[in-house]
Design goal:
homodimer, about 525 residues, alpha/beta, Rossmann fold, 7-stranded mixed beta sheet, 5-stranded parallel beta sheet
Chain lengths: ~525, ~525
């Protein structure tokens, strides 16, 4: 089985339904409504075009774009042509993009209007394909295919289910960015398990970024059910509400940070959001006051929480709407059908119900491995189980509670930030003697990054100076948003910094104990 | 993925729910209610017991039993022990059982009280295990395991998804009985696609025979959802209704013949059937007056029609309840999610919508092949598609209409009867010159078998004589239920008997044109 099934099914049974509202750079003209028949033809032409450019089966092609119809089309066109898509995080610093292009050995980079100007800042740029709305910049290849690229279905061989659909870069459960290899089988399994939760033929708003796994599932499930896609290029709470009203959106996914911005927007109430049937949130912990506020402000919408990770394609557990009114609202729900989730000790033995341990998972949705990282792959997938690095416990009713990151990770706005990477950057400042980075609860971002820093004797350094210094050198979401200065960091017997002590002392948002 | 996942999930999330009502031969004592925790333990003990008997991974074990808790248990215990189950048709003649035991090279045969006495009539009997309620007959091994057979989960290796779960014997789409090899992957896929249709945690009555694929899906889906199994040992309309009332049954599957017997039973109305939420029927065409009568007699029950075959594990298309009130009621519905169904010409090219052709199908649910029949397997699965042998057409809304059997098959009461097999038997009678067998519509069995026979000059033979003669030599459901005598059979230019002409002339139930 492969994800192209979704597209074929949409054409076979929903050919004249609206597939996608394609915006075309004009705010005065309405978006172009494409049927599944038209969408299907475009995908075949686009795949033929990419092949004509000399991109071969198995080549990696990076996509650096905001949400759009073209992005959706590229997910299918690359899969059809056997090309491995490498979706780039739109919040990355150019240095991250350079790393990823090099690590994936990308044969081409596809950009839109937002990122075309940034290409000049890249140290390393392969062939660049321009998929924006304007004139193609010099030196780039236009993403333009014509009727001549219409090809017979038989031109493309059926992908093997073990073939890669994409490389999805993440900091993952063990340090350093790496490409998660997701196959047709992985994504097919995730979409089946997700459809067991929701099989409706809906109107989906891509409001979370399309490079992120939180949104990716919908690219397959909405297509498979013959539903309709529409796009929010980059997140803005008012624009999100405007599009929900305009297209009568029935389903979307947001991370808690975005949901917070929507329900506390001054424009809330200005738009008709009554079409929203179901609302999935996830990727980072949702504070209870926020979910309660959201449920009371959107009383006809069913909220569901997903817990997962890139390595699981991504869904592992789901908290159903019905369970939001129970004590289980602080849990991550139950394992979705098809996944197997256990809580184990350091020897992978089940711990009793109620006790905490590491969350491990198994299923056809679990990644093939990390791209060119056989050792980390073997470690993370040891014994045939994905070791998530998250600590959790099951209660007696089968609900899974996520307790802590076993590995050292912070998730501001749903992004994975691996603290050693931040600590390396902060420690590089000449005035810093030592540093430890911790996560603190944050109403807006779910979790924020705090650096606890000891300055070198006699050195001067303010909080603002350090934050600005980091922002000039690193992707913004990885930078600390607050700094606490201390004389010395607490250490254990082996000299290791005791982060648990720091979290106790400095882990409150108000920094009451800060020096 | 493998079907044991269902059992593990039932234990993990529904351990204290009722798994099964186990009858134990007493009509005065209530059935034993087993929880999923207890069921799980029994399966592990039973698997260890079968291993202790020397049955090894990959061995075939035939099961010749009526519906029961033990049958359900054996489906899981064999899968856990890596044993290939071979469910035997309970309506077979001993000669069919002999054929199957030999063809599958079965290491053991498991029987219940109903079939233990028939073992003596078998030409070939391997070791026989007795899983009945009484004392174990001499020469048989009791199906009795104890606490000492409780084993650690780690004793059994996890099956590979390409491992066989069972051999399911069928006449199939091309002549002669043969074992359909269904793997963990096949049955796992079918169960996912079926759960997309119905995910409810229900109470399932095994009223269709458990050797048949029409009932098999429920063995996995009901378990996976932590629902409850109960059993009708052999079909009887009143007993069926009594059990529905007694266990508050929510779901079951019946072939049209059985449904007919239920709704036209003199006892209809005597039992409370209001617990029935959903009702699946299939395996042979359902006359419109019958389905309409059933819907009006069971107004709160949702009827669904499935179309499939053993080779597809089995489900291919489904007619939803909503569509029963439309013109599509005479169709077989739409392909279930996960299967791919096409209607093609003799060169496997799609025919236009509205035109008829052979129905072919593809998906992870399609069998691995026929046991020890590589040539037929290659023929039936040519090009990666299952050639069903059924003729059909799609309408513009995606509904599939089954028009005719491309191959020569009759389905009395949902069984596949391949006409050449019946013709060979009839032709063996000394008074028969030539014969052709056709199907005729039958109110009770859906389809009945009629032999059109030319007697040898001067020979005498009555309808009754010929039917009795067949019944002494062949499985009853394969025997003609009516005979039409003619002087000569119509033949085409090549000398081939023109069955289409015979169907026109003698295909009416009333035999108005019979000689």
């Amino acid at each position: 089985m492969n994800v192209l099934y979704c597209l074929r099914r949409a054409k076979q049974f929903h050919g004249s339904s609206i597939a996608s509202y394609r915006e075309h750079g004009s705010t005065t003209q309405p978006a172009q409504a494409l049927t599944w028949n038209e969408f299907y033809d475009r995908v075949y032409r686009a795949a033929a075009y990419l092949r004509d450019l000399g991109i071969r089966k198995g080549d990696r092609v990076a996509v650096w774009m905001l949400n759009s119809h073209e992005y959706l089309e590229l997910y299918y066109a690359t899969a059809l042509a056997g090309i491995v898509i490498v979706p780039l995080n739109t919040r990355w610093h150019e240095s991250d993009v350079d790393f990823t292009l090099k690590d994936s050995d990308a044969a081409a980079l596809i950009v839109d209007d937002r990122f075309a100007p940034s290409v000049a800042n890249l140290a390393l740029a392969p062939r660049v394909i321009y998929a924006g709305q304007g004139a193609c910049p010099g030196g780039m290849i236009p993403y333009s295919y014509s009727e001549s690229h219409q090809v017979n279905q038989d031109t493309f061989e059926e992908p093997d289910e073990q073939d890669l659909v994409g490389l999805f870069y993440t900091s993952g459960t063990t340090g350093g960015p790496k490409g998660v290899m997701l196959t047709h089988r992985n994504l097919w399994s995730n979409l089946l398990y997700s459809m067991l939760v929701n099989l409706r033929k809906g109107v989906w708003l891509h409001s979370a970024p399309m490079f992120h796994l939180a949104d990716l599932t919908s690219i397959y499930t909405i297509t498979a059910s013959g539903g309709t896609h529409c796009f929010l290029p980059t997140f803005d709470p008012e624009e999100c509400m405007r599009l929900i009203e305009r297209y009568r959106v029935t389903d979307t996914v947001l991370v808690p940070t975005m949901l917070n911005m929507v329900i506390h927007s001054p424009s809330f109430g200005k738009y008709d959001l009554s079409s929203l049937i179901a609302f999935l949130y996830g990727a980072s912990p949702m504070p209870t006051p926020l979910i309660n506020a959201a449920m009371s402000k959107l009383p006809t919408t069913q909220f569901r929480q997903g817990y997962g990770m890139t390595e699981a394609s991504p869904l592992l557990t789901l908290l159903e709407f019905e369970d939001h009114s129970s004590d289980a609202v602080t849990s991550a729900g139950k394992p979705v059908f098809g996944t197997e989730v256990r809580v184990v000790d350091d020897f992978d033995r089940d711990v009793p119900v109620g006790q905490s341990g590491e969350i491990i998972a198994r299923g056809a949705n679990i990644m093939k491995g990390y791209w060119k990282r056989p050792e980390i792959t073997a470690e993370v997938l040891r014994g045939g189980w994905l070791h998530t690095g998250d600590m959790g416990r099951f209660d007696q009713n089968g609900f899974l509670y996520i307790l802590d990151r076993k590995k050292d990770m912070i998730k501001p706005g749903g992004e994975n930030v691996y603290t050693p990477e931040v600590e390396s950057m902060v420690a590089a400042h000449p005035a810093v003697l030592e540093v430890a980075v911790i996560g603190v609860a944050d109403e807006k971002w779910g979790e924020a990054i705090r650096a606890v820093v000891a300055r070198r004797p006699g050195a001067e350094l303010s909080e603002t100076e350090l934050i600005v210094w980091c922002r000039e050198r690193m992707t913004h979401f990885k930078c600390p948003s607050s700094v606490v200065f201390v004389d010395t960091l607490p250490k254990g017997g082996t000299g290791k910094i005791q982060k648990a002590v720091l979290r106790d002392q400095y882990g409150q948002p108000d920094r009451s104990t800060s020096a």
